[in-house]
Amino acid sequence: MPNKIEKELLRFTTCGSVDDGKSTLIGRLLLDTKNIFDDQLLALRSSSERKGLDEIDLSLLTDGLKAEREQGITIDVAYRYFSTPKRKFIIADTPGHIQYTRNMVTGASTANLALILIDARKGMVEQTRRHSFIASLLGIPHMVVCINKMDLVGFDQSVYERIVDEFRMFASRLDVQDIQFIPISAKLGDNVVHRSNEMSWYEGSTLMFHLENVHISGDLNHIDCRFPVQNVIRPQDDKFHDYRAYAGRIAGGVFREGDRVMVMPSGFTTSVKAINSPEGVVKEAFAPMSVSLQLEDEIDISRGDMIVRENNSPQNSQDIDLMICWLNEKKLVEGGMYIVKHTTREVRCMVKEILYKIDISQLRRIENEKEFGANDIGRVILRTTQPLFFDSYRRNRNTGSLILIDENTNETVGAGMIV
């Protein structure tokens, strides 16, 4: 019997200012694609009635915290899974308030697509710019701008076109190649899953059609082979007395049985003897598969080392130039000491230099700033105690990203994208 074809998975995140309708849009997507169970629907109706509403409040589906339901806002990142016959989806519903920007960064860090919501009555606001810039900074390759609440502006085409023109002008300074615009009403369902009868002037696709058909298979780097070693497998029993394999998740490229590879930082070379996956032995493996590699030669390899192609190695340096989103109330200052977590490698570092901060509203550099506060974004240089093996973030999101951890509290305080 032939193997069942695995449906492709699209991860997307919702971005935008508070009250732009992110949670309502997700609720509408789940309802109209029939991904809400009957008992969930009954619970939604009951909750909506207790709030004195005549219709179902779809935002309650993702606002799981008590404080979120009381205030009608999103605070934490809410993840929701659903599927259609064409594709599987994981949604990260992220908060709109500026003080929860760190949660937005978390939700967007693994996304293939950013869904930017704009209230048709208000147009672009500071959080629209902030979230769009962060989505660009995080290297999200696809962006869909949904102009929401079109029903509250009488489905006026001129309102939609004005906001589109304003966003295009702003986005010309962002590094996003694929931007689509869709006028919607999340509350009523117009152009979300079903086409709107009220906006016959719009000739593009519905949001659901776009999510099902956007091309994402080319987003991963299948050229540069990168395998950060997570664990060394040594059973040390009679059956597998001499067995040694290296487990981890492929961060880039395609590994095949017989390939010549090099181990960093030692520089020793060998060949791939076998590749084991959860389904058994495979001839080849590619990002983002989790596998274990057996090598022809016995080389001293440990967690944090990286297996790469012999003639295609990443950069190797202790001076790391990166853009950083600062996530902590305690300020980032020059000379500050932190732990760097990069792929499977952990080292200590010092902030060598703060180059500049970014003014989000104007997209301009602020020079001579020597400290970052919570939610600030800018460029810094770190000096690590041991070399990191990395690519630029634009080339590989897995080997080009890192996080900073406070040595004393063990809190994640910064998220960095290597320049």
What can you tell me about this protein's structure?
This protein has helices at 22-32, 38-50, 66-71, 101-108, 126-137, 157-171, 207-213; strands spanning 9-16, 78-83, 88-93, 113-119, 142-148, 178-183, 226-228, 231-233, 245-249, 254-256, 260-264, 269-277, 280-282, 284-286, 290-295, 306-309, 315-326, 332-333, 337-342, 345-359, 364-367, 371-372, 377-390, 401-405, 412-418. It is globular, with a radius of gyration of 24 Å. It has three domains: 9-213, P-loop containing nucleotide triphosphate hydrolases (Rossmann fold), CATH 3.40.50.300; 226-309, Translation factors (Elongation Factor Tu (Ef-tu), domain 3); 315-418, Elongation Factor Tu (Ef-tu), domain 3, CATH 2.40.30.10. It has seven helices and 25 strands. It is α+β, with helices and mostly antiparallel strands.
CATH-defined architecture of the largest domain: 3-Layer(aba) Sandwich
- Distance from N terminus to C terminus (CA atoms, Å) equals 48 Å
Label the overall shape.
globular
Mean pLDDT: 86
Strand percentage, roughly?
35-45%
CATH topology of the largest domain: Rossmann fold
Radius of gyration: 24 Å
Task: Pick out its properties.
8-stranded antiparallel beta sheet, Elongation Factor Tu (Ef-tu), domain 3, Rossmann fold, 7 helices, 17% helix, 25 strands, 3 domains, globular
Layout: helices, strands, pairs:
Elements: E1 9-16, H1 22-32, H2 38-50, H3 66-71, E2 78-83, E3 88-93, H4 101-108, E4 113-119, H5 126-137, E5 142-148, H6 157-171, E6 178-183, H7 207-213, E7 226-228, E8 231-233, E9 245-249, E10 254-256, E11 260-264, E12 269-277, E13 280-282, E14 284-286, E15 290-295, E16 306-309, E17 315-326, E18 332-333, E19 337-342, E20 345-359, E21 364-367, E22 371-372, E23 377-390, E24 401-405, E25 412-418
Parallel strand pairs: 1-3, 1-4, 4-5, 5-6
Antiparallel strand pairs: 2-3, 7-16, 8-9, 9-15, 10-14, 11-12, 11-16, 12-13, 12-15, 17-23, 17-25, 18-22, 19-20, 19-24, 20-21, 20-23, 24-25
